[in-house]
Design brief:
- The longest helix has 13 residues, at 201-213.
- The chain has an eight-stranded parallel β-sheet. A two-stranded antiparallel sheet has the order 9-10.
- It has helices at 14-22, 45-52, 67-77, 90-100, 113-117, 174-181, 201-213; strands spanning 5-9, 27-31, 57-62, 81-84, 104-110, 128-133, 163-165, 185-188, 193-195, 198-199.
- The protein has a single domain (5-213), classed as TIM Barrel, CATH 3.20.20.
- The N and C termini lie close together (11 Å).
- By secondary structure, the chain is of the alpha/beta class.
Length: 214
Amino acid sequence: MPGPSIKICGITTPQALSATIKARAEYVGFNFYPPSPRFLAFSEAPALAEQAQGRITRVGVFVDADDAFIAEAVAAARLDAIQLHGHEAPERAAQVRARFGVPVWKVLSVATAADVARAAAYAGTADFILFDAKTPKGAALPGGLGLAFDWTLLAGYRGALPWGLAGGLSPDNVAEAIRMTGAPMVDVSSGVESAPGVKDEQRIASFCYAARAG
């Protein structure tokens, strides 16, 4: 059985992107949420977009962004997909998909089985669901905090949409997470960093190896 596809999120430098491509990840995440330490400025996006062209799929990450902001990012980074990481309802996901004509990924924060069940509401309005850990109340960021949730909530999951697993993944636990959930796609950000926003090339390589070896 082939291993899961892999997304390395929060890439901001040519070196980190090179490591991601070299490790044969299928997706790179460009973070367009300004408060994040992984924020990618519009001025720096075109060079990374060019480097990624034809080599890896470019996914832009947004948190409750308006159309004008998304449009600027789509143009700067030549995005192949849009990831909605805020409180976007199914109707908003449908609007974004219709407006920009690229696949829309919706992140759902998970703490209970009811959170997983929310994915059904996005059938027909989003193209992909990414299950992530629910952040503590009052947290400054909606993700990228290295938190995991109870992976048994996804054991045997069969939804209407393709899906992936995020939240607290690292080279040390990704194989176990895949075994427990059967995740067809895994997404990592802080788990391959040496400091917030600073990607570690060896950890990127180790994560991709562990995801496929498990």
